[in-house]
Each structure stands twice: as C-alpha cells, then as structure tokens.
Amino acid sequence: MKTPGLAIALGTVAALADVAGAIVLVKAHAVERSLRYFVALGAGFLMATTVLEMLPESMRVSGNLAPVLVMVGYCALHFLEHTVNAHFHFGEETHSGEFVSLHTSYSVLGGLALHALFDGVAIGSGFAVSGALGWLIFAAIFLHKAPEGFTIASVMLASGGSRRNAFLAAVTLAVATVCGVMVIALAPRLVAFGLPLSAGVALYVAATDLVPEVNREPGVRMALVFFAGVAGFLLLRLLAPAL
Ligand SMILES: [Zn+2]
Ligand SMILES: [Zn+2]
Q1: Can you say how many angstroms the Cα of residue 78 is from the centroid of all Cα atoms in its chain?
Q2: Dist. CA 112 → ligand 2 center (Å)
Q3: pTM
Q4: What distance in Å separates the CA atoms of residue 103 and residue 243, rounded to the nearest whole number?
Q5: Of the bound ligands, which one is closest to the alpha carbon of residue 98?
Q6: What are the domain boundaries of the chain?
C-alpha cells in the first residue's frame, strides 16, 4: 500500500469540487459557461486515462476477471443513472415540473452518489497500485467534479428543492467520494475489484454522461476541447514518464 494519506487528501480535494460546483450554481451563475469547458476537457482526459491506464492496469491486477468487472461497472451506472431515472443528464437541469419531480431528484441523487463513490474508489485504487496512477486518476476525476456538483444542485432546484437542499445534495456526493477512497485505503486488497469496476464506471461517465453534453453544444469549439483533454493526458505522460 502506497501513500494512503495522499489518496485520502486528494480524494477530499476532488470531493470538495462537488461542493464548489453547487456553490457556482447557487451563487455565481455567470461562471457556469466555463464549467462546460471543464466537462469537455474532463471527458477527453478521463477517456484517455480510462482506456490507456485503468484498463491495462485492471488486466494486470485482475486478469481475465477484469473485462467482466468493467462491464459490470458500466452496466451498474447505466442502471442507476438512466434506467431507474427516466430523466437525467449532465449539466444544468432546466426542465422542471413533470420532468423532474422531487421523487426523481432523490433517485438522481442516489445514482450520482454511487457514481461519486466509484470516483473515490478509482482514486483510492490508483494510489494502491502506484503514486503515478493515483495522480493521473485524481486529475482525470477532478476535472468533472465541479460540473457534477453543479448538475446535482441544479436537479434539486429544478425539482423545487431549496438552495439548502441543493447544497446538501452536493455535500452528499462529496461524502460518497471520500468514502470510496477510504474503502480502498483501509482494504487495499479490494483494488482487484475496485480498479476494474471503477474503470467501467469511468468509461460510462466519460463516454455516456460527458461526451453527449459536449456534442449538444453547437459549433466545433467544444468538440475540440475534448481533444485538448486527450492531448493534455498524452503530454503529461510524455513529460513525466516516471510519474
Ligand atoms: Zn433535463
Ligand atoms: Zn463523478
């Protein structure tokens, strides 16, 4: 087990970004546009980290079980985010009323809380393998955390919840993230399950939650930011091969 303290510290930083995203929605709506660039950048970086780092490492630590667990992680998130919930998408929830009832908003929170738990498991698993993998996964996860907090806060508001509800929902995601890190920090042997499961979850978040938001934006600019995320990952890998 390598540096569980660092894993927990960085997991907490990622968790606080959930809360920061909610504060942006509630207090500073003007910076909302820049959050969308984080979505595109985060999608590219997370996609590259998942495919080029998490999948090969999963094969190494879990062998033939890895692809099965990746698929399980992917399907579990699809079930909780989009099957249990008739209506959920990343970004600001502007459809209120029949689309987002108070009941729906709490089931969205449940789905996102499991997603956030696996964000934490991914960071914890990365650090259980090596400091380099831990840092890369932290960076990849961190980029979509503020948009994630923003999303849940807007879902709560669109369903008629109070600002306090919106804030507490983001805090719930932050707590789930830290719990995920703690699970692996306390039981590093679980990395054989945690890494491939969270790789499946990360694949879903990048390709199925974030990329459609990037594609919704008219024009080519946002689409290019996705490639900037991929390039950022490659550059980091090139500049710091030992990282
Ligand atoms: Zn909507
Ligand atoms: Zn997340």
Answers
A1: 14
A2: 7
A3: 0.90
A4: 45
A5: 1
A6: 4-239
